[in-house]
Structure formats: structure tokens, C-alpha cells
UniProtKB/TrEMBL annotation:
Native species: Spirosoma endophyticum
Highest rank taxon of the organism: Bacteria
Pfam entry (one): MoCoBD_1
Name the record gives this protein: Xanthine dehydrogenase, molybdenum binding subunit apoprotein
Domain Aldehyde oxidase/xanthine dehydrogenase a/b hammerhead as annotated: residue spans: 25-139
Length: 754
């Protein structure tokens, strides 16, 4: 037997991205970069009005241009299956999903009204400018605050499983709040925001003759957070056998939730490819990024009441969010206070106002960052009202029980987040007095807030194959939305079979691979990670069987519990010199690879009695220019408890990204709607402000140790969203401490401080 080479475990180590070189050298291809011969290009024409009808559409000038192949409109579109069935994608809110080119009706500004397809992109783009549309305008309503009287309860549907309505009221809020010696109340208005990933939305459809129904086979490169979602959409909407559709998305240039639903460029490119029997690409522009899905504008009211000693005993949180006329998009905005704090008298309500806009769409920590901003600013205000330190108020009302569900958390190291975060930040030397710290003409402020996000696990499949050359190939149709999925799955697989990472290849983003749901909600590490671990364990079990069959095998009668995988060997735990290499074992398999597929399901029996959440404590320092009202976030410490940290390097990057976006959300991001036109006007990165390098200063991330064997066998909670959640409130509270101004609306632009 060979002498094993020592291989260190990779989980828990700061491993660089396995896809890093591909990404930074431009080798990683995105949806619009897959070139095929004879590709045609589609450009979308968008509606100029927000509501009404297309009276006439003149496409003749466009069609007359050399190189224009076709202009698709509602007048000449083929009959499409989904117009007869009701279809929901994996992230569809209750209602009826938007149907591009359905008829002459305009439901929102920017709605696609035509697709021009030409031999070149340039001709298509020019031809699109020649389309003349005449509209019959109707009065639109796009202003949430002006339409609050229309607020109603959202309809329920399948999406409500993950976004349950707020819990029923408990206790007697009105009476207790009335009698409380300390109380505060406030109204919080948030602007709509748009995801602005660097990679724009695009689909390249490669058309081949043939297929089960003879109408062609499609290979689709789509910008998506879930290839299976895109595939199911195309299959059902166009009534194409799923065997004739393969969707790929090996890389994604940022998603943040915008890729959780199939967007209209997918529909239009497939339609054109099928009709023209040709490969087609449709790319949307940055402006068109603002014509589907956004974080909804919201109005929230929070009231908190407490006893003299700071005991919180009354909590009221209600929120109203905008939605479209065709779907009831909801998010969990108001339920967090009942999870995080123990008041006995609670009312929470969430309502929607349907407007003439596209359906809102999940955007990083949907609802969480919204609701926690209001709640945690209210907590700060209450602390001032009580004359109590804001951190002490949180500790006074600390609980290990989720009072909404009346069950404990599977783990909650938030207290440790507070302790470590406060210490690193130097919170104890804070003078609570607003405007007490000054440097030249700058006011300095320190603020803190708590963050919380769900730790979910979804069903997922995975396959592991120990190939004849001794290398391991693991796969799943999940996504790497830029967060490190490739890397952590490679680590998990390598460690499970005791192999070096270089011998493991993880594949994703392809519907030919085992099924997985959309990658979102911070659940990919837990869901796909568990599947990868189980698939590798299944290979391990097959290897043990092979080991037992070897002549004079020392493994006869040995149980799974008695062995371990290390240094590319299977060996006895009790006597590590009894070992056989994985290569030797696969050689016993009659020239075949050892292949196992598993479906990994959450352990509902173990999970059902617990609430599973990640937590954070955020401490922020701001510097506010007294003359100009500009805010600079000079320093932030974010202490995170999110279970096991698989990779401190990619994890820290995730949290840093959330913190940067938190600064952006607190101070800059706002999709400005001109209600006269019903259109988002700042639809470019020049006018839709996001944080840039100059806005980002000292960011510090602490991962607090947290063990949890209830969430999933890996003990991971996911990090996609928790990084942003506490940020806006911590910054808003720091702004109050600096200036004495309680700004409750976001973003905190300088006009609100002058
Ligand atoms: Mo995230 S908003 O679930 O992509």
C-alpha cells in the first residue's frame, strides 16, 4: 500500500475562489458571451407610457432596413401555451405573472412592446428606434404615499410558505402602550430601489433542428439565479418538452435577487429563436434593468412602549408596500420584532397597494433590511427616551425564544456578537449626548443596531463521481451568484472524502446536472452543501464495500462508523496504518467510476421545534459635515453569528458586500419615480447612486463562534443577506448621535440633514 501524503482539511480555511482566475482573466463566460455561428440579435422596444393601450404600432420602417429579420409584437406573436394555463415560477408571488407581448394593454412604463431581430446588434438597435407606437393613455397610479388608502391584505399563494403573513396580535397593545411610562412612535418611508448587477440581463438561445416535437432543440445561456427555474418556465410557457431544453449559467455577474425570476429577455429570445429557427441573443440595457422588479417602496409605522427599567412590553409594527396590478408581492417586514424581543403585547400587519408598476422583486435581505431599519431605529429612539445606552436596552430585552412561534432558536450567539462587536468598536467610551463629538466642522456619531435573517434549507440533489483516474467530480444545477458556491462545494466534497481540493471538480449552472432550486434566501450553502456532503458520503459507502471485497481485506466486518477518509485514503479510525488509497479502490470497480446521486432533504423532525436564524450586531461611526450635510461612514464593525463558517475568506467578502450595500442603501440608493410619467427616471449608474470606493472606509467583520447541529448537518446558516440587515439602522442611529436629527426615511440624503 502507498504512503499517504498528508492532506489538510479545507473547510474553515480562508481558501481563495477556485473560479477566481477564470473570473479575473475574462475566461469566465456570461450569458451574452457565448458566441455561435449565425447568431441573430434582438433589441427590445419599451413602452413610453405607464398605463393604457397601444393604438397602433408602425414597424414598416424598421422592417425595411437591410438586415432586419423580424419585428415581434402583440399583433404577430405566435400562439403561446401560457396564455391558456396558469404558470408560476419558483419565486412568483400570488397572482398572474406578466406576459410579454400578450396584447395591446400597457400595465407599466417600460413594458416591452416589440422585439426587433436583426443580423447584427447595431442594425437591431437602430431599427428599434424606427418603431412608431401610438398610445391611448389611461390615468396611472404609481405613488405609494398618495394611494395608502387603497392598502389591503395581500392574497396568499405558494410563495407564502417562505413568506408567511405576520403572526396574529397577542396581548393588548393599545392598553399597555397607553399606560407605558416610556413610549415612542415613528413613521418610516423607504424609496424603491433597483438591483444593479454589473452584468446586464441577457439570454443567448442556441437553436438546433430536431427535438422531440420536431420544432427544435434549445441550448439557452441565461442570466439567472436558477437554471431549473428558467428551464421550467420555457418548457411550460412554450409547451416544449423539457428534454429539448438545456439551460446553462456557469457564471453570474451579480444577481442580488434580480435573477430569481425569469425575466422578459428569456421569453423574447426563445420566442424569436423558435419562430426564426435560428440562434438569437437578447440583451437588455441598463435602462431596461429598471423595467422589471425592484425593492418596493414602503411606509412603516413602529410604536414601542417600555417600563422604567427598559423592559419592552408593547410593540406595534405595520408596513405597507407597493405591488403591481397583476401579482401580490410581499415580504417579511414586520415580524422581526416579535422574534428578536419578548414584549407580550404585540400587533403586526403587512398590507399592499397595487400600483401601475411591475411587480416588486426580492432584493438582498428582502423585507429584513427594510423592517429591521425601522425597528432598530425605533429601539434607539426608545433608548434615548429612557436615558439608557442603546446596547444595554438590547441586552435588557434579550431572549433565546422566538416569541412569534413560542419556540427557542436552534442557536443564537447574538449576545456574543454584541460583546465582541462593542469591544472591537470601543463602544463603552461613547458619550450618549448627541452632538458631543466634533472634529473640525464635522460632527461624529456612533450608532448600533441588530440584524437577523432566516437560516433556511431547501431540498437539493447532487451527484458525486470518483472517476477512474482517482479525481472526484461533483455536480448540482445550482448557481454561483458571485458568492463562492464553486469554492465551498469543492471544499465540502474534498473534506468528505479526505482529498486535496485540486483533485475535486465541482460543476453547477446546467440543467443537465442534478436538480436544485433557485439560489437565494441565503440557503445555498446549507441546501446544496448538505446534498454535496451526502453524495460524497454515498460514494464513501460504496468505496467501503469495494474495500471489503479486496482479497484478504482488513476491512471485512468493518462498519461505516469505524472508518474515515483522509489523505486520499480510506482508513480505520482505530489504526490509521490500515489504509487503502481511493485510487486502489476505484481500480476495483471493473474499470468504472464510482457514482452516487442523492436527494438531500431538510431534517424536518429535528428542525420543527426551533426557529433558525443568523444574527448580527453592527456598530457604525459617521462623520457629518455640518455645513454641507454630507455623511461619511468612517468605520463599521459587524459581528456575525451564522453557524459554521466554511471559508472565512469568501464569507468575509460576502459580509463586506452586504456592508457596502448597507452604506449605499442608508445614504444613496433610491429609484426616483416621476409620477407624471409613472417612470423611474434615474435609470443609469450615473444617476442611480450606489456606493463607490470613495464612500467606503474602515469595514471590520467578526465571525462569532456558533455551533448548531439542528440547522443542517454542516451547521451552516448562510451569509447572503445577514451582512446588510443591521447596517442602515446603525448608520441612521449614528447620524442621530452626530447631529441630534432623527431621520426616519431612507436614503438619508443631505437635504434631510440641512
Ligand atoms: Mo437573494 S434577494 O434571495 O438573491
Amino acid at each position: 500500500m502507498s504512503t499517504p501524503q498528508k492532506i489538510n482539511k479545507s473547510v474553515g480555511k480562508p481558501i481563495s475562489r477556485v473560479d477566481g482566475v477564470e473570473k479575473v482573466t475574462g475566461k469566465a463566460k456570461y450569458a451574452a458571451e457565448f458566441n455561435v455561428p449565425d447568431l441573430a440579435y434582438g433589441v427590445v422596444v419599451s413602452s413610453a407610457i405607464a398605463k393604457g393601450k397601444i393604438k397602433s404600432l408602425d414597424t414598416s420602417d424598421a422592417l425595411a432596413l437591410d438586415g432586419v429579420l423580424q419585428v415581434f409584437t402583440h399583433e404577430n406573436r405566435p400562439k403561446i401555451a401560457w396564455f391558456d394555463i396558469s404558470y408560476n415560477d419558483q419565486d412568483a408571488p400570488p397572482g398572474s405573472p406578466f406576459r410579454p407581448l400578450y396584447d395591446a394593454t400597457i400595465k407599466y412604463s417600460g413594458q416591452p412592446i416589440a422585439l426587433v431581430v436583426a443580423e447584427t446588434f447595431e442594425v437591431a438597435r437602430y431599427a428599434a428606434t424606427l418603431i412608431r407606437a401610438d398610445y391611448e393613455e389611461a390615468t396611472h397610479e404609481t405613488d405609494l404615499e398618495a394611494n395608502l388608502h387603497k392598502a389591503r391584505k395581500p392574497k396568499s399563494g405558494i410563495a407564502s410558505l417562505l413568506k408567511p403573513p405576520p403572526p396574529k396580535p397577542r396581548g393588548d397593545f393599545d392598553k399597555v402602550y397607553e399606560e407605558d411610562p416610556n413610549k415612542i412612535t415613528g413613521r418610516y418611508v423607504h424609496a424603491a430601489e433597483h438591483h444593479n448587477p454589473m452584468e446586464l440581463f441577457a439570454t443567448t438561445v442556441v437553436f438546433e433542428k430536431g427535438g422531440k416535437d420536431g420544432k427544435g432543440k434549445l441550448t439557452i445561456y441565461d442570466k439567472t439565479q436558477g437554471v431549473t427555474n428558467s428551464s421550467m418556465y420555457v418548457s411550460q410557457v412554450f409547451n416544449i418538452p423539457s428534454d429539448d431544453i438545456r439551460v446553462l449559467s456557469p457564471y453570474m455577474g451579480g444577481g442580488f435577487g434580480s435573477g430569481l425570476r425569469p425575466q422578459y429577455q428569456l421569453f423574447l429570445s426563445v420566442l424569436a429563436a423558435r419562430e426564426l429557427k435560428r440562434s438569437v441573443r437578447v440583451s437588455l440595457t441598463r435602462q431596461q434593468m429598471f423595467t422589471f422588479g425592484h425593492r418596493p417602496a414602503t411606509v412603516q409605522n413602529v410604536a414601542l412602549g417600555a417600563l422604567e427599567d427598559g423592559t419592552l412590553n408593547a410593540l406595534c409594527h405595520d408596513a405597507t408596500g407597493e405591488t403591481s396590478q397583476f401579482e401580490d408581492y410581499t415580504e417579511i417586514v414586520v415580524s422581526w420584532g416579535g422574534m428578536l424581543y419578548p414584549p407580550k403585547n404585540v400587533t403586526m400587519e403587512y398590507k399592499v397597494v397595487p400600483l401601475d408598476v411591475y411587480s416588486p422583486l426580492d432584493m438582498r435581505a428582502p423585507g429584513g433590511v427594510t423592517g429591521m431599519h425601522a425597528l432598530e431605529v425605533a429601539m434607539d429612539e426608545l433608548a434615548y427616551n429612557l436615558g439608557m445606552d442603546p446596547l444595554q436596552l438590547r441586552l435588557k430585552n434579550y431572549t433565546d425564544i422566538d416569541h412569534n412561534e413560542d419556540r427557542p432558536f436552534s442557536s443564537k450567539e447574538l449576545r456574543e456578537c454584541f460583546r465582541q462587536g462593542a469591544e472591537r468598536f470601543g463602544w463603552s467610551s461613547r458619550n450618549p449626548e448627541p452632538r458631543s463629538m466634533k472634529k473640525d466642522h464635522n460632527l461624529i456619531g456612533w450608532g448600533m443596531a441588530t440584524g437577523i435573517w432566516d437560516a433556511n434549507q431547501m431540498p437539493s440533489r447532487a451527484e458525486a463521481v470518483l472517476m477512474v483516474n482517482g479525481k472526484l467530480r461533483v455536480s448540482c444545477a445550482t448557481a454561483d451568484i458571485g458568492t463562492g458556491t464553486y469554492t465551498i462545494m469543492t471544499q465540502i466534497a474534498a473534506d468528505t472524502l479526505g482529498m486535496p481540493m485540486e483533485d475535486v471538480l465541482f460543476k453547477l449552472g446546467d440543467t443537465d446536472l442534478p436538480f436544485s432550486l433557485i439560489s437565494g434566501g441565503s440557503w445555498t450553502a446549507a441546501s446544496v452543501g448538505s446534498a454535496v456532503q451526502e453524495a460524497c458520503q454515498a460514494v464513501g459507502k460504496s468505496l467501503l464495500k469495494l474495500a471489503k471485497k479486496m482479497p484478504a481485506s482488513p476491512f471485512k466486518g468493518v462498519k461505516w462508523e469505524d472508518i474515515e477518509f483522509a489523505d486520499s485514503h480510506l482508513r480505520l479510525k482505530s489504526d490509521q496504518s490500515v489504509a487503502v488509497s481511493l485510487q486502489t479502490l476505484v481500480d476495483q470497480n471493473g474499470g468504472k467510476a464510482v457514482r452516487e446521486s442523492v436527494t438531500s432533504l431538510p431534517n424536518a423532525f429535528k428542525q420543527k421545534d426551533y426557529t433558525r436564524s443568523a444574527h448580527s450586531a453592527v456598530f457604525a461611526e459617521v462623520m457629518v459635515d455640518e455645513d454641507l450635510g454630507t455623511v461619511k461612514v468612517t468605520r463599521v464593525v459587524s459581528a456575525i453569528a451564522a453557524g459554521r463558517i466554511l471559508n472565512p475568506k469568501t464569507s468575509r467578502s460576502q459580509i463586506l458586500g452586504g456592508m457596502v450595500w448597507g452604506i449605499s442603501k442608508a445614504l444613496e440608493e433610491e429609484s426616483a419615480m416621476d409620477h407624471n410619467f409613472g417612470r423611474f427616471m434615474n435609470h443609469s449608474l450615473a444617476e442611480y447612486h450606489v456606493a463607490v470606493n470613495a464612500d467606503i472606509h474602515d469595514l471590520d467583520v467578526i465571525f462569532v463562534e456558533e455551533h448548531d447541529d439542528i440547522v443542517n448537518p454542516l451547521g451552516v446558516k448562510g451569509l447572503g443577506e445577514i451582512g446588510i440587515v443591521g447596517m442602515p439602522a446603525a448608520i441612521a442611529n449614528a447620524v442621530f448621535h452626530a447631529t441630534g436629527r432623527r431621520v426616519r426615511d431612507l436614503p438619508i440624503t443631505l437635504d434631510k440633514l440641512l
